[in-house]
Amino acid sequence: MHTIKELQDIFTEHLAKQDFFSDPKELYEPIVYSMNMGGKRLRPVCLLAACELFGGDYRKALDPAVGIEMFHNFTLVHDDIMDNAHLRRGKETVYKKWDTNIGILSGDTMFAIAFDYIMRIDDDLMRKAVLLFDKTAIEVCEGQQFDLNYETMPSVTIPDYLNMIRLKTGVLVAASLKMGAIIAQAEEAQADAIYNFGLYTGLVFQLVDDLLDVFSRDHKFGKAHGGDIVCNKKTYLYLKGYELAGEEEKQALDHLFSDKTIEPEEKVQAVAAIWEKLGVPDVARNEIRQYHRKAVDYLDALNVPKKYTGELRRFADELLGRTY
Amino acid sequence: MHTIKELQDIFTEHLAKQDFFSDPKELYEPIVYSMNMGGKRLRPVCLLAACELFGGDYRKALDPAVGIEMFHNFTLVHDDIMDNAHLRRGKETVYKKWDTNIGILSGDTMFAIAFDYIMRIDDDLMRKAVLLFDKTAIEVCEGQQFDLNYETMPSVTIPDYLNMIRLKTGVLVAASLKMGAIIAQAEEAQADAIYNFGLYTGLVFQLVDDLLDVFSRDHKFGKAHGGDIVCNKKTYLYLKGYELAGEEEKQALDHLFSDKTIEPEEKVQAVAAIWEKLGVPDVARNEIRQYHRKAVDYLDALNVPKKYTGELRRFADELLGRTY
Asked: If DSSP codes are grouped into helix, strand and coil, which group holds residue B92?
């Protein structure tokens, strides 16, 4: 079995060998650009790791892993249009560099190319793999719609929010792992267990992101410190803050989130101070630990030698570790 | 074998039984709306007709036919955003009725749902059918990109234009027919022949549309008379007009297509008069007849009893007949 780091290198090398360019160049240049933007390649690496975990040959999983990464990047290209995001990983987003029409159409093409790569597996696995992928794609769209809805909805509950990040982030990590299990011909129950590991790991990933946006010790994650607070994003912290707030803190938060004359830096510090006082970061860390526990329980229950699960365990631990 | 009219009714009935609605409603209401907009259901009916032509059971083709129609409607939803089109079949377009974000995301979901329906076939046909569908989806995106490019490109050739409408319109009609052949387990060569019939029929369909926009005897096709001329669309007629024009007509056309003070009605009449004088409609009709001939040749060469091809022959003849 390879380490996560080795699989990252293997995947990067395989991806570099793909030639996504074709005619018309207006359609394909943005695809090449998007796929070359980098990133952690979290999902394809999960796919390869799960394949090896269940005794499969990672080489059979390389093309489907490209498909998963292509799909993920397609969602980023379209999401950036919907969110008016100008930058991604420090570079101009596709629709900003070109235009909205090209963003829409290149994205559509990436979705179709993703299917092509997913299908590069044995005949007897085709239906299972493509159905899983397609169902996941629909769920990711649903998650993005809930996310858009919540921007303007006055009352979002924490279960609403958790369901949204499950759909928007969790299911694709989960499906990537299950795809690896399918390619390794793992038993159904085992494939479902690794799916659930991925689902909870995805939740950990997103909740840690929420937390680090405000309470990180450094800025190495490339985001503006407190960016979620600046744009009033209804994250776990935001919702939990209101839940725990007394009348006085509630009024203070309302004021901070509505008065547009407050300087961003000041707003972030003031909101963070109230949340800290209410114990929001500790509640969040506790919630994250519980999801991490659930993820690891699914991993421990797998019917594979313990030493094989070490890499995925370390992977989950590292996500958790970022919060301390 | 059923007639085209009967297959239209069968498909409409099957479509009405589908429940596309789900949660969140912001995502699914536009999908239901788009699928209920009506239209000729040309592509799914082609799929059913080809299935019966090769001795298949049309009931096995009903769900893939829904998938094809869902895909076609997805392209319309996204194209309407790119083309700033406010109306479609006399109703508000999705992005106008809701907003651009919902248009993008509902469209993406429709593409994924389309795959789900296409996959509702026997295991041994899965790869062939899904690969055909996916390849076609990519080509349709390429066609739309060429179409967008041509809006601002100064010199578009007639072969460029024909290639664009092949991709944007031809391949989906062709793939619908071939999908029917695949479901009926037709031989490869037969499936390819019906694909080519569809390709040329699709070209006839689009070229007839171009012609009728300007030279129709009546307005029953729901388009403003000369709408393509009003917005300087580089159709077959536009390109052929410049090809056949002498210096004098070229200057007159340049003036008509660039002077924004000319009233639309006046512009349409003047351009149409020049084209008529140059013999453009006759050249177009001749081109259409040649494509119709090629389509019919593919149909005649099929290894099925002549009486079976009658319905598709009548279908192609009717498209051609609209020009006289």
From this structure: strand
